[in-house]
Amino acid sequence: MNKQKPPKGIEWTRIKKSVDGQFVELPGYTWNPVGGCLHGCTWKMPDGSVTECYAKTIAERLASGGYKQGFAHHYWRPQALKEPLRLKTPAGIFVGSMSDLFGHWVSEDQIRQVMNVMRQADWHTFQTLSKYPVRLPDFNPFPSNVWVGVSLPAGHLMKPEGGARALMAYLRHMMLIQADIRFMSIEPLWFDVAPVFDAWLKTHDRLPFEWAIIGAASNGRKIFQPKPEWVSSLLDILDELHIPVFFKGNLKWQPRRELFPQPGVERVHELPAAERFVFTAALAG
Ligand code: SF4
Question: Model pTM?
Answer without folding.
Answer: 0.90
